[in-house]
Fold this sequence. Notes:
Keywords: Chaperone, Endoplasmic reticulum, Membrane, Protein transport, Transmembrane, Transmembrane helix, Transport
Number of helices: 24
Helix content: 40-55%
Membrane topology: Multi-pass membrane protein
CATH topology of one domain: Immunoglobulin-like
GO biological process, one term: post-translational protein targeting to endoplasmic reticulum membrane
CATH superfamily of one domain: C2 domain
Structural class: alpha+beta
Protein name: J domain-containing protein
Distance between the termini: 84 Å
CATH class of one domain: Mainly Beta
Largest sheet: 6 strands, mixed
CATH architecture of one domain: Sandwich
Shape: elongated
Amino acid sequence: MLLAYKVSQFDYEYANFDPYEILSVSLDSSQAEIKKAYRKLSLIYHPDKETGDEKTFMKLTKAYQALTDDEARRNWERYGNPDGPGAMSFGIALPSWIVEKENSVWVLGLYALVFMVALPTTVGMWWYKSIRYSGDKVLLDTTQMYYYFFHKTPCSMAVKRVIMILAASREFEKKHNSEIVERPSDIEEVPHLIKQIPNLNEKNREAPLCYLYSIKARALIHAHLNHVPLNPETLEKDGQYIIKKCPYLIQEMVNCVSQLIMLAYAHRIPRLPNIETIENCMKLCPMIVQAMWEFKNPLQQLPHVNDDNIKYFSSKKRRVKSIQQFAALKSEEKRSILRSLPDDKFEDVIKVLSKMPLIEFNVVSEVIDDENPTVYTAGAIVTVTVTLIRKNMSELFEVDNEENIDLNAMEGEGEQGEEEEGNLKKEEQVKKPVWQKQAKKGKKSSKKPSKGQKQTVKARKSEERSTQAEAKEKEITKKPSVDAGEESDISEDDGDNSDYDGLDDKPDQSDNKGSSLEDDDTEWEKFQSARLSKREKVLEGLSKLSHSVHCPYFPEDKQEYWWVYVSDRKSRTLLTPPYHVTALVDKEEVQLKFTAPRWPGVYTFTVCLRSDSYLGFDQTHDIKLDVKKAPEVPTEHPQWDMLDDEEEENHGAESDVSEFTTDEDVEDDE
């Protein structure tokens, strides 16, 4: 403001130096007339006179020099100043009306309007909008409502109840969202739509579930799931807007429920949502993306497959229940099942099927930064590393029916079902830590043995197991001081070095030790580079691009996202918050950490993978933890004894029953 005032009071005459105007002479005046005018004005404005003015006298002198002295005149004509070029100066190109004295009041008023009214108003509006939303661009009022309803329902919440809460989100209310359109036609169209949808529970009196905007949004979501035709000019536009916002609102629901469950687990708070509630929230997302209820056949996610075609998937020869099983069939069998479709529609089915995800789900659990990472002690931090490898479903095409394919795992069944006769059981593989040498494994054939070779295969496998057991016993007797990690390496080396079989002398182990040290260094370098790459990914931020989902009923392009978490199915407890995988293009590695139980025993936990875009693509993997008793802390110092006494007093009232359920407890109950 002060700068604007100074600029408005800028002397206009200095900016426009005109010697003729200063001396009050015309442009065609002679030198005599100029001298006469200068003398006359000098007698008036000379500083020694009573009416003198030093500033005006200096201007008169410069004007006289500019008109009488040749050099001063040249400087005035070139630089606008009889003294010649001055020092370098910088200025602001302002309009002339700003520096005029008669406009100074208007200039000050304009600056006051901009800097004292408009700018504070803009900043205030931005700040008000920013505090209304969470980090995921969800209204805080919506998040608060989610917490209220999920905390109010202590047990599992049904999917339809989750839909009611989702429809009551404040994003669908005109008062909180200016993009919502309230149409006069809603008075007639919404009640007519409600009559077409059964079990909408529109008479519920809970606020805000009973509000008109909530009932309308709920009816539009049910219409989307039931494929009810809507008016394309009114309700269909509103429905597309609501459906488009549902995925990230459901993600906010998952975050709220997981925080409540983890809070109940940490503070032993009873009557809070269990794991079924959060899984129903996750299940709702692919339902909305694919526009189908959970009880529908997942094969209907393929194009042109409807209720009339489903009956051909279940026949006496074959019972195809999942998309993975259908993809593993031969081309002739696929065409036979969909024989009612013309060739162009069948090609559409195969094209969409070939691009659907086929996830390889690998899980490794360990205790990082421990001497023995495979030994779990009470209270230790267990790290579960989940590796997701994304492939296209086209890799299952033209797979022979006799090959051993574990499709039950792809369907998400947690327990291992009974395999068909002749399938070979896969041995559990334990991944070694990164600093230990990894064993080289040969490729195994996945084909099943024929009926005439079943007994020979079983006998051969039993012989191999017996020989491996004998070899291990011999190694143990020869080298009793070797630890478990070195035994596996030695047995593998002995199996590879067949040249030394039958010899009494052992080969020199110095070369092997040197190579093992080099391998350890390379493994450690790979481990460090992997950590650096993960850190760079975190700094760059989570990407939101993976693969486009085939969802013809969803109003915009949808990317494949996944949830990964660890749960205890027996106690219905969530051990880790669900990690939202949003950048699974080819491969993604996720680390989930939780605290091991405080009581020794054998525990079975489940690592779950759930899709937010497709139904029937969920997977689970069980991990068993043999929790040992934690080593006692030495109490040599007296202050440690005092701390132990305080802990005993604080935890003396706690029950001795574990928050988890061991496998022995389950056997006792049976």
